[in-house]
Structure formats: structure tokens, C-alpha cells
Amino acid sequence: MKIILLKDIPKLGRKYDIKDVSDGYALNMLIPRGMAEVATASALEKSRVLKAKATTEKKVQGELLAKNLDTIKGLTLNLKEKANEKGHLFAGITKEMLSGEIQKSARLNIDPESIKLPKPLKEVGEHKVVVEAMDRKVEFTVNIEAK
């Protein structure tokens, strides 16, 4: 069955992709949960328009972020999180959390996908994190302290 994805789904595809999946997976899992819709002619056209709009919007956000990378360059985020006596955090610091902290401190709206963090930060100390936009990379510092 051909479907159009309405959300990013790991190991399947990204939003607005057209995929061919088994009938059972589509009818029992994806469509009832609002993650996909059946790929009819009108839905395909609507998907094509929305995908183009999302692509241009993402490109504009990337260009805007590339212009504002200089404000991030010298930024130091100080975070206080719960940790054990060995300095390991109970909950890791994710890209989304870092994006929110940058929003609070520098008043810049950064897409979490542009923050290059292979895995969540799980230790107390100073960490260097890279933000990448439009072939430009800027590094900022995250200082994590135990509560």
C-alpha cells in the first residue's frame, strides 16, 4: 500500500515521503495513529506542495541561522542538573534541551537538527558542542554542574 508520511518515522522515512508498506502496517499502525495517510491523487498533490513549502522554509531558517552564528560563537551555557557522586547525570542533556537553553539566553531560535550532538551529554563538566548551518560550523561551550 502506498502511503504519505505525516511525521518523521525512524527506519521508515521523513515527513511527506511517499512509501510503499504492507497493508497491515499501514491500516493497523500508521493511519490510525495519524502518522500517515493513503496516497491518493489529491493527497499526493497536497503532499508535494507541503513538502516544497517545508523545504523552502527550512532553507530560509538555515540562512537566518548562518547569519546569527556569530552570536553563538562565544556563548557559554551554564546548566545545573541532578547528578550522582561520580558526576554522571541522571538525565542526559539532549539537542532539544540545548536548543531551548540557547533560546532563553541568546534569544535565537535554533532547530535541534542543526546542533551536532552524537549522543546526549551525561557527565558533569565542560563540553564543546557544534552548531552547523549552511556549510558553516560554530562551536559553543556547555558547562554542566551538579545540583
Please give a structural write-up:
The model has no long low-confidence stretch (mean pLDDT 88). The chain is of the alpha+beta class and 147 residues long. The termini are far apart. The strands form 3 sheets. Strands 4-9-8-6 form a 4-stranded mixed β-sheet. The chain contains 3 helices and 9 strands, in the order ββαβαββαββββ. It has 2 domains: 57 residues, 3-Layer(aba) Sandwich (Ribosomal Protein L9, domain 1); 83 residues, Ribosomal Protein L9, domain 2, CATH 3.10.430.100. The protein is 36% helix and 32% strand. Strand 8 and strand 9 form a beta hairpin.
Mean pLDDT: 88
Uncertain stretches of 5 or more adjacent residues: none
Radius of gyration: 20 Å
Strand content: 25-35%
Report the CATH topology name of the largest domain.
Answer: Ribosomal Protein L9, domain 2
How does the overall form come out from the CA principal axes?
Answer: flat
- Count of helix runs: 3
For the secondary structure, the number of strands is 9
Alpha-carbon distance between the termini?
Answer: 52 Å
- The figure for the number of domains is 2
Order of helices and strands: EEHEHEEHEEEE
CATH class of the largest domain: Alpha Beta
Oligomer: single chain
Strand order of the largest sheet: 4-9-8-6
According to CATH, the homologous superfamily of the largest domain is Ribosomal protein L9, C-terminal domain
Give helix % range.
25-40%
For the sheet with most strands, the description reads: 4 strands, mixed
